[in-house]
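Posting for a labmate who doesn't have an account.
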Amino acid sequence: MKRSWSYSEGQGLSLDRKPPGAAAPPPPPPPQSRGTSLSLASSDACPSPDRRRESPSESASSRETWPTERTGEEARRLPVLVAAEAATVAKSDGERERDKLLKEEDQHEHDHDHSTVVHQVVNMDRIHLRDIAQAPIEALASRFHAQPDEYLEELKAELREVLTGMGGPRQREEFVLLQKLVQARGDLSPASLMRSHRTQLELLVAIKTGIQAFLHPDICVTQSALVEVFFHTRCRNMACHVQIPVDDCSCEVCSAKTGFCSSCMCLLCGKFDFDVNTCRWVGCDSCSHWTHTDCAMRARQITTGTSSKKKKGGGAAAAPEMIFRCRACGGTSELLGWARDVFRACSSDWDINELVRELDSLRRIFHGSEDQNGKKLHEKAHESLERLRSGTDVSVVLKEIHRLFQETEVEEADDSSEDKKVVEPQEACSRIAEVVKEAVSKMESVAAEKVVDVKRARLSLESCDREVEDKRRELTELQIERQRKRQQIEELETIIRLKQAEAEMFQQRADEARRDADDLQRIALAKSEKVEEEYASRYLKLRLNEAEAERRYLFEKIKLQEMSRTQNDPAQMVTMCKIQYLLNRSSSKRDATAMETSAPTP
């Protein structure tokens, strides 16, 4: 039988199955990366069915505690440490005893300088991992708010280093102690964790689950989802992240409320990995729970017997075949049809390495088979492995495997037809009644699920209506604000246009004033040149008159000297000189006065 699987947003894994009769192919553990390299688009992001990962059956990201294999010294020291811590929590004066234990542990850490987990007090506000594990939520949340983001990232990196366990036994003991402190607390509740700092909550969830993905900066999980993971009401697998128990399952495993998710975790080991389209996972036809085939073989859940389908079918007693017995519901599923469905649906995408792993799983599953078909499949798997190692092409081996599956299917059809030939009327009526009863029970369960789905859909619709109404109010406010801004913009544009008009007017006036100033400057230059020319001409005329007067004076003086030489009368000559001087002086004054009166006014 072939199961199709997919992840749907908000609901996680959905399984569509045919009528029971064959064990189901493996579950769809999400193909995410391990460790801190995990990157998801959202908390409900899920893979495509045809993606596969070559991961070991036990993923590092699914471990809740550290491995139990330890050295002699660890085995002696760890039980003492855990027992002492549990005793201190149980006592009425637990705070005093806990402080005493922590002081002893701190003293022991100072004696080991090579340890990678160092608890050194830098200042009074420094937060340690043990403070997160045991300090009150509200008091520590205020301290977290006061810390810078860089220090919070360093705190996450310190816890990631502890979770990796690369530092040796000391870090493993430190992680066990932190986990015990968190699990022993009785003051934690969903309400108190919702009031905590986000980084504080991420660290608490990472300590309790042992999964580093909650500390990765690229993964965004809501605070409410982190609280649900902490209290085991949501799957801790970051790529599954569905509400648990899935579909309100009431089986013994799901109702234990230990964080088990039937969509992606193994019933026996409680861990998830990223193997899909493989024979390394087997599912129950009745309850859709999944189990590692390796875990099922170790727990003897894969054994010989009669499947639930053949028990209901009745008929002649058949030889025991290989079946898978589900631990959750106790139902049995035959494995031959399951292997046939897996190979038909997924073998076309396998390379040689994947085919070798699947054939090896098939060989180990059908190793103890007592029916002929199971023995043939075991021998064919062993033979195919040898042929692949000798260099035979993958397509040739797959054709032979498919041919064997076709032959076994034909034989099963023939056997079932022979069983159906002789059926008593009473037995036929009882079978029909059982089928009808099973159909009615399934319809009732489906109806109950549909009612729950309708309620969820109604709540989602009401929430969406409230959000739409809020968005409508916000849209109205934004439109009003937009209209107001538009009016302000128009007013500013009007002011700008007025200022531009004023600037243009003042620019025109400035240009006119500049032109008037240039005209006045040219007129002033012209008048200045004309005045200078008139002044020069008048100055030259004055100098000419002075020269003429001096010439006449000299001429008269010479004339008087000649006359004096002729007359030899000194007194008369002096008198004549004075008279001549006065005449010349009066003449020069008269000329100067005439020039001043004739000069134009500037």
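Reply:
Got it, the structure tokens are right above this. Residues 70-214 form one domain.
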